[in-house]
Amino acid sequence: MPDPRSGGPLVSEIGEAELLARILPLLPAAAAATTGPGDDAAVVGTTDGRFVVTTDLMVHGPDFRLAWSTPWELGWKAAATNLSDVAAMGARPTALVVAIAATPSLPVEALEQFAVGLRDACESLAPGCGVVGGDLSVSDTFTIAVTAFGDLDGRPPVLRSGARVGDVVAVSGDLGRAAAGLRLLFSKGVDDDGRPDAGRAAALRERDGDVVSAQFAPRPPIGDGVLAAAAGATAMLDLSDGLGLDASRLATASGVGIDLDLDALGPDPVLAIGGGEDHSLLATFPPGTILPGGFRRIGEVVASPVGAVLRDGEPLDPRGWDPYSGWDGAIG
Amino acid sequence: MPDPRSGGPLVSEIGEAELLARILPLLPAAAAATTGPGDDAAVVGTTDGRFVVTTDLMVHGPDFRLAWSTPWELGWKAAATNLSDVAAMGARPTALVVAIAATPSLPVEALEQFAVGLRDACESLAPGCGVVGGDLSVSDTFTIAVTAFGDLDGRPPVLRSGARVGDVVAVSGDLGRAAAGLRLLFSKGVDDDGRPDAGRAAALRERDGDVVSAQFAPRPPIGDGVLAAAAGATAMLDLSDGLGLDASRLATASGVGIDLDLDALGPDPVLAIGGGEDHSLLATFPPGTILPGGFRRIGEVVASPVGAVLRDGEPLDPRGWDPYSGWDGAIG
Is the ipTM reported for this complex over the cut 0.90? Predict the structure, then answer.
């Protein structure tokens, strides 16, 4: 977070026109846009006469804290998490619109770094995807609203509802690392009163940078969404609320059960199942499919109980696997 | 605003799944959606391989106050103002995504009424347009983020930059009525300390319902956007910041000046020029065009000064026409 006392202007000190003049050049262009930012609306081309759309809010407090995340990380994460929802449909991300309500005391430099984070995420995770429009407002609560678009290039979308008994259950991306980072931050990134502390978070970045990065700047396997669709994935979703809960959503939508192999979930299956914000892709493939990209087998689709997630054939009690139980979510 | 003590549950008292189960059935369906809400993303069809997109934030405080607006009006206005930006491109609105950050103490009934307002606005102003996705979050500041989509049906978009010297300047919709409503609310809809007062605002609704409605539930001439495009409009924009400022934006983008006929601006040209939030359509047409729909002539495109707005040939000093000068915008 740039220091508000460092001398640069605050959001409340320059007009909207100057703010846009500073931010717009930092944003990535979208290859598919035929009319970009600056008019009442943008115009974006599609290859097959359809577009994929998803929207997500990030609110200071419940979703992020400026004492912990840098503005660059916020921009990165705002892009990455929305791109991941597009990828989970089997689509190629093409464009974003970004609306920000900034606090009056936010340094303009923070919004510039936010824009650079957005750009870096697009360029790194979904080349060609860019920002085609947005809105700037002022609020007591720093709030970020991103809407992301994708192109299916003629393929059918991969829904949550297509898994069939006997399909292989596979995942691409991390399981539990973002949650490990958040657990670390809640236990050691806070001051003695339990409030997020920038200094202690910085120390954690030095020591445990990998899990802290997984939380603040996730790298979802965006390209694997299209690869999964091309390989015949029968169902897919973005893991945002933890493998256990999200797998049960896929199972419910498909009218099947899912049996996870505990051995395939890494060294900490508790976190792998209960941890949220992985933004990995969970997909099901017909038996015998050569799994594409970074997908690895973690289980199998079973007939019953419908909507249930099992581990090695035994019922999984979601509450028994909740790594957050006993935490005070209100702290910080 | 439903009374929080009326017995219905608050947002903080029911889970996200139950909240969605109550709200989703109230939302209008989009005729163009092939995959609607419920998956990671929606899929929307286009008729010509392109989509129009615009996004807008409404933040409690700067943009609305629950002591004044009903939740139904918020839903209506959130839809109407975004549909107007789509219309200003010459496009037909097809779909919306809506993200809401509600305060924990907001009655669930308020969100239901918000959804009904959204639905009524879509059905009334842009039949066939519906909600294809969204997000629900919690915040200390009630915040609404809407992204709207439109279809050009094969026509080129009508940009701000196409006005030519000699074109007729025309407007469809009200001028200054929304600002008159806001002025009334700021002067007589507040308590003795200048804070928005629900009781006094209710009295104003009784007496001056037309201008109060123009502010809280505007009825932009959405269909006139397509009619203007079909009639050959050379430039168009949505009047959100006042005719004077928005006309100068169109003039600057087009490299021309605009000369307004004072007589054509109604009984209160000050409010017509300075008032914001009209969400009327300002467009330019080649000379001799039979003006379509509700468009009426209010001036002419001139060669110079570039970017300037004149009235009857005399330079317009925007500050001299600001009906808000002297107000304390922070009050309320």
Answer: yes
